[in-house]
Amino acid sequence: MSRLLRIDVAFDFICPWCLIGKRQLERALARLPAEQGNVQVDLAWHGVQLLPQLPAQGVPFAELYQQRLGSAEAVRLRQAQVQDAATAAGLDLDLQRIERMPNTANAHRLLRGAAQLGRAAQRDALLERLFEAYFLRGEDLGDVDTLLTIAATCGFEPAQLAACLRGDGSVFVADKPGLAGQGVPYFVFDRRLAVSGAQPAEVLLGAIEEILAQPLGRSA
Questions:
Q1: Residue 33, Cβ neighbours under 10 Å: how many?
Q2: Strand 39-47 to strand 3-11: parallel, antiparallel, or no bridges (unpaired)?
Q3: Is residue 163 assigned to a domain?
Q4: Contact 85, 17 (CB under 8 A)
Q5: Residue 195 β-bridge partners
Q6: Is 37 a domain residue?
Q7: Phi then psi for 182, rounded to 5 degrees?
Q8: How many whole angstroms separate alpha carbon 43 and alpha carbon 202?
Q9: InterPro entries under this entry (predicted)?
Q10: Residue 89: how many CA atoms within 13 Å on its side-chain side?
Q11: Residue 33 domain-assigned?
Q12: In this structure, what CATH number is given to the domain that contains residue 24?
């Protein structure tokens, strides 16, 4: 008999830790069949805007980070930390290619609209492609044409998604606004056990095993 495992993840496209956490979760799930038998995973991604106040056209990436961290050296150290964690997760980020910090409202609207139109595999491909567009290619996720082009590469018809997007930078209304109260990425397993941050695969796998060991309906 199969066991259904629900995983909810709060994320934002501009957060490198969210992409790193995604990779670590994938590693944990890849180890799951051998360790837990027949488990079906229902994985739901919930978009959260970390910087909803940004203008629709975004702001210069380097300038924003230096303002937030206080100095060019602080930025260098933070980016080195991110790169090290990304490498450990099997990612080769290219932070130097990022020119703008985008307003991510439309990127989240695009993914939500795509989830209503396409198959789960298409939605997952779009999620991955949006992350890669920003952190590997330096593409502007605040640009409508860029977003629709990305959607087309995942098999979506751009005209079907264009109506989801807005040009005024209005805030994206999250479907689970309280989910990311502890920051992103934020993982919730079976609505009972939460793990915050881009934890190693071993930590996420441990949380999954803990949940699967509990009788259904028991609170963590």
A1: 10
A2: parallel
A3: no
A4: yes
A5: 187
A6: yes
A7: -100, 15
A8: 18
A9: DSBA-like_thioredoxin_dom, Thioredoxin-like_sf
A10: 26
A11: yes
A12: 3.40.30.10
Q: Note down pLDDT in tens along the chain; length 220 residues.
A: 678 999 999 999 999 999 999 999 999 999 887 666 688 999 999 999 999 999 999 999 999 999 999 999 999 999 999 999 999 999 999 999 999 999 999 999 999 999 998 788 999 999 999 999 999 999 999 999 999 999 999 999 999 999 999 988 889 988 776 776 678 999 999 999 999 999 999 999 999 999 998 876 544 4
Tell whether 90 is covered by a domain: no
Q: What amino acid occupies position 118?
A: G
Residue 36 is predicted with a pLDDT of: 63
Q: Is 191 left (phi over 0), alpha (psi -120 to 50) or beta?
A: left
Extract the tokens encoding 106: 């439309």
Structure tokens at 217: 């309906």
**What is the domain range of residue 183?**
1-48+174-220
Q: What's the number of domains the chain is made of?
A: 1
Query: Per the structure block, which two tokens stand in for 90?
Result: 């099997």
Dmax over Cα atoms in the chain, in whole Å? 56
CB 169 within 8 A of CB 56: yes
